Amino acid sequence: MTDCLFCRIAAGALPAHKLYEDDHILAFLDLHPIRPGHALVIPKAHHVWFEDLPPDLATRVTTCAQQLARRMKALYGVPRVAMFYTGIHVPHAHAHVVPMQDQHDVTSAAYLAEGPGVFSAPPQLPAEEMVAIAAALRPAFS
Ligand SMILES: [Zn+2]
């Protein structure tokens, strides 16, 4: 088994609060959400960089993120949802999908509270809250 965290999640070897899954991609909740509902969409195949994803796979990730974004807007009443790749933390391409409560939710101020060079991971939410959030987001795909 690979030591890639996201390959292990994609293979079902590690648990995740899954939102959507098919043969090619997987969407699940980020363990350190910027905002409740913060999701990750990954290709199941191991690719380090998003720019190296085959076009059809990149489209699948984006389409999934679009479905999540529409659900997040309805569920959380937010005006916008951010979708971005950073390549930080886990070297397996993953798109962040974040319901933005504030326009600075995904800009540097949220990450650099402890100074440049230090990326603060937002705190984890209680497991039961994560379960409820996942259940509320899954209708995005029905
Ligand atoms: Zn991987």
TrEMBL record:
Residues 5-108 form the HIT domain. It comes from Gemmobacter lutimaris. It comes from the Bacteria. InterPro entries: Histidine_triad_HIT, HIT-like, HIT-like_sf. Pfam families: HIT. Signal peptide: none annotated. This is HIT family protein. The lineage of its organism: Bacteria, Pseudomonadati, Pseudomonadota, Alphaproteobacteria, Rhodobacterales. GO terms for biological process: nucleotide metabolic process. GO terms for molecular function: catalytic activity. A motif (Histidine triad motif) lies at residues 92-96. The active site is at H94.
